[in-house]
Amino acid sequence: VEQVKLLDRFSTSNKSLTGTLYLTATHLLFIDSSQRETWILHHHIAAVEKLPLTTSGCPLVIQCKNFRIVHFVVPRERDCHDIYNSLLQLSRTAKYEELYAFSYNPKQNESEQVKGWQLIDLAEEYKRMGVPNDYWQLSDANRDYKICETYPRELYVPRTASKPIIVGSSKFRSKGRFPVLSYYHKNKEAAICRCSQPLSGFSARCLEDEHMLQAISKANPSNRYMYVMDTRPKLNAMANRAAGKGYENEDNYSNIRFQFVGIENIHVMRSSLQKLLEVSGTRGLSVNDFLSGLENSGWLRHIKSVLDAAVFLAKAIAVESASVLVHCSDGWDRTSQVCSLGALLLDSYYRTIKGFMVLIEKDWISFGHKFSDRCCQLDGDPKEISPVFTQFLESVWNLTEQFPQAFEYNEAFLLQIHEHVHSCQFGNFLGNCQKEREELKLKEKTYSLWPFLLAEQKKYQNPLYNPDFSPELTLLEPNTVSFNFKFWRNMYHQFDRSMHPRQSMFNLIMNTSEQNKQLEEDIKELEAKIKQRNGRSDVVLVKEQERTAHPAPVALKSSPCFQKEQPPMPVNDAVRAIEGSNTADNRYSELVSEFSKAEPAVVSLEYGVARMTC
Amino acid sequence: MEFAELIKTPRADKVVLHRPFHLAVEGTLCLTGHHLIFSSRRQDNAEELWLLHSNIDSIEKRFVGSLGTIVIRCKDLRIIQLDIPGMEECLNIASSIEVLEDGWSSFLLEQEFELLSSVTNEWRLSCVNKEFSVCPSYPPLAIVPKSIDDEALRKVALFRHGGRFPVLSYYHKKNGMAMMRSSQPLTGTNGRRCKEDEKLINATLRSGRRGFVIDTRPLTVAQQARAKGGGFEQEVHYPQWRRIHKYIERFNILQESFIKLVEACNDQSHNMDRWLSKLEASNWLTHIKELLTAACLAAQCIDREGASVLVHGSEGTDSTLQVTSLAQIILDPRCRTIRGFEALVVREWLQAGHPFQQRCAQSAYSNSKQKWEAPVFLIFLECVWQIHRQFPCSFEFNEHFLILLLEHAYASQFGTFLGNNESERAKLKLPQKTMSLWSWVNRPEELSRFQNPLYEANSLVIWPSVAPQSLQLWEGVFLRWNRPSKFLEEAEEERINIIKYNKELQAKVNALRRQLAEMETDGEMQEAGP
């Protein structure tokens, strides 16, 4: 469709870009008059809305799961209607096999594909933690997904937990998700375990489950008692008792310390994000509306509660050497958040690029966080959608803000992962649990995201990272006083260029440190050349031949200055150039209606979606 | 604070002194706290030269090999030249002389005017206020349109609140547009007018063009002001001007807001909702946003609309100065350098008569709520910080510099921020009795603490984003004492190290390249030889 206008969502002046809109099997593509391309993956589309017809055409608003919002105006209503319908169909996939990952072909051969999937090896990871050992062993109870469908095949449990105990305990736990090892802290010999809620109702008890918990606390020689963290608010947990579920009764279990931490459920989180987006998407927002909207959405409160829970968990292990069992209702949302963040605080390995992939693979993918349902990969129940994983990433981001040198990865890494959790371009996040993934034969039919991220890890490196920032296995202690939590502008306004700083200190530092590496190499090379020359200066005769082999010095000689070879810092300049610094972007001019002079339109959307897709 | 502490190399031998119409003399150079002394040290007719540091107007360094030359131009118009053997010694002496500059005379309006007159001759320097008789809160000198004589200025002063007649605040070289500031006109209820005032501000307009009056009060307040003798420019009498009311909060409202914000920041026990609602209730960021918006508006009128602007509120000593100074930060790259920013503070705040003594007598913990206390200057600095955050490479100074100014505005061992205006400072004889903050700050070793390693001069106009999502609490001030900042400081240090390392590497690469190239040419010559 031609002559389509793309409007800038925050600009007051009605400036726009005119261009052509294309629909492909996988993407929506907009090419403006200056040939800039905007790619939007159909899977990223969260909602399409057709607004009432205006004089200039029919407006179409597309909301994406990566918080991009695009506003098109299509001149003809019929075209608009067609696009609308096609997008509705294309963005709602009914079957896994229709997802982009199954058609995506990054030109890898089979062995590379297999290698890619083997990059993250969880057995290796458990070995790194120090299990199996005297207290913990690999259990084959769930080898065929017989005990719990949503768990992985390989599970680590205390040595003293026999199979009947496991089976008994799993029957007493919601969805059969019995307590298993999530993280083992080898210095403290304490463990993070995870499970779902017990089916205790008002008075039911289960001896095997009690034995199971006892086995976990006995597997920790340094501390007799263990914590049981119910990550739900107490009220929710009590309400669950009426449905035959509930929480552990401290009287029935010996040596446990029971604790509620009050993270809200997926529905509260979903509507909280909804409110947040409504506020941040308002045009001409005042500071107070923004702050009160932020408060009313409760979003930062939820982030804080997640991080508070993780800090509690990490402290129990690092300070008291006590093992902790974490659960919520089903043990795949809040439990994943708290376990993974707790481990991130405890173990600096998870603060490296590779380690973070392992962490996601372990606590989220393998333990059955329902990515497909939560991210709405298939057309499904909208009540199952929830930004649980986004909150995890945001919590990590908050930590990176407090500890700028503790993480090997940067914000772009978190954003890119978020992008691909929703993109359905790689197989990692498809499906709801490992069993489903095996049935889909993802490892044969799709590709793994991690090798691609690793291949371009330069982009995701934190130039300030200091591997010696904290000694191995020492606790990172974030300050969780409210004022430390900030609105994550780069996540929720990633595509609203006008809101970002016009000069990014971060990019500059990153490029500079990149350039430093290059320069170091240059120096080595030059020094080698000089050495070579020195050696050669005695043997004048040989030189002629040598020089033909080294054309570079000739080039140098011909240029009057020696700078010819020097990298002219093109990247740096690009970063520093202030483009798009434009009054119309910034809505100062509401008062002056007569300021109607056309501003040069500067909306740039080249950043983002399509980076990995083309 | 003693000048003597600043001297790096107190003495140098074998210095050659050149003066016009004198033979060159070799001798010893000594630097003392107040003088530069040259002595030929000859037994027969020892020649000595004593030069007061305060007499030095400018110095210039030159190097030929290891021989350094310093040319000193004095305020009494004398020019002398010193040849000093040894590069390092020469540099030390030069920098010692340089830092012995007297901050009290570093930023004079005369210099400003000199710069201005090199690009335009439409303005003149008026001494009408020499005895502070026309306007007690103005400095003795003012830049006004050339066509307006002192007599007219006196009349205009009677028509403006506190005698603050319109003066030039900023001249936009790019298009010759001017920003002026003043106080409200005293129109009163019966609509008084003053022909000279109209003539004065019209003198800044190009023929056929319109200008904008930015009134920092809402229309209602401006109207109410008429009852008390104040008022605003009425369209009938100023047909070429369009009035925009852009409300900026003042005095006690700001002070209350400040107190509330600090209270919220100091209470660590707040849960998230309470923190956010307290932050909101303080209204602090709203004030920041409003002020930034107003400054951008003024800058927009000048740069984009090509129109001249007159800014005033009621007294022209607070919100007016905030707007004019911030607009300059946005428009003028010079104001984003350290010296330029110092000059801006001197020009637009100190000389323009912002009553520091009154406004900064107390801070957020004061119990006596005097109505003249207000964090006006703090808000200005915070706005600069907000722009700085959005353009981190465009400022020569860093956050510490802003915090330094904030600290010294409230409490200082220097005389710079004492008093409410120039006339008070003159009465207190501050330039004679106290040291200027600038004398201290501008020494190289202090200055290095305030330099932004990322700085790269940016000649463009920088338009900040004023969306609430783009504004942040100034943590360096408000959370400075209530959060652990070790990790953030270490990260900052690391950033600086990366930049430094980069410079070192580049220098090294260049040196190696040069070496290699030299070897190339040498080799060639050898080759050509046989």
Automatic annotation (TrEMBL), chain A:
Keywords: Coiled coil, Hydrolase, Lipid metabolism. GO terms for cellular component: cytoplasm; nuclear envelope. Residues 509-536 form a coiled coil. The active site is at 328 (phosphocysteine intermediate). It comes from Chloebia gouldiae (Gouldian finch). Residues 116-492 form the Myotubularin phosphatase domain. Substrate binds at residues 265-266, 328-334. One of its GO terms (molecular function) is phosphatidylinositol-3,5-bisphosphate phosphatase activity. It comes from the Eukaryota. GO terms for biological process: phosphatidylinositol dephosphorylation. PROSITE patterns: PPASE_MYOTUBULARIN (PS51339), TYR_PHOSPHATASE_1 (PS00383). CDD domains: PTP-MTMR6. This is Myotubularin phosphatase domain-containing protein. Belongs to the protein-tyrosine phosphatase family. Non-receptor class myotubularin subfamily.
From TrEMBL, chain B:
It comes from the Eukaryota. The keyword Signal does not apply. Keywords: Acetylation, Cell membrane, Cell projection, Coiled coil, Cytoplasm, Endoplasmic reticulum, Membrane. Residues 488-522 form a coiled coil. It is found in: Cell projection, Ruffle membrane; Cytoplasm, Perinuclear region; Endoplasmic reticulum. One of its GO terms (cellular component) is ruffle membrane. It is a peripheral membrane protein. One of its GO terms (molecular function) is protein phosphatase binding. Pfam families: Myotub-related (PF06602), PH-GRAM_MTMR6-like (PF21098). GO terms for biological process: negative regulation of autophagy; phosphatidylinositol dephosphorylation. InterPro entries: Myotubularin (IPR030564), Myotubularin-like_Pase_dom (IPR010569), PH-GRAM_MTMR6-9 (IPR048994), PH-like_dom_sf (IPR011993), Prot-tyrosine_phosphatase-like (IPR029021). Belongs to the protein-tyrosine phosphatase family. Non-receptor class myotubularin subfamily. This is Myotubularin-related protein 9. The lineage of its organism: Eukaryota, Metazoa, Chordata, Craniata, Vertebrata.
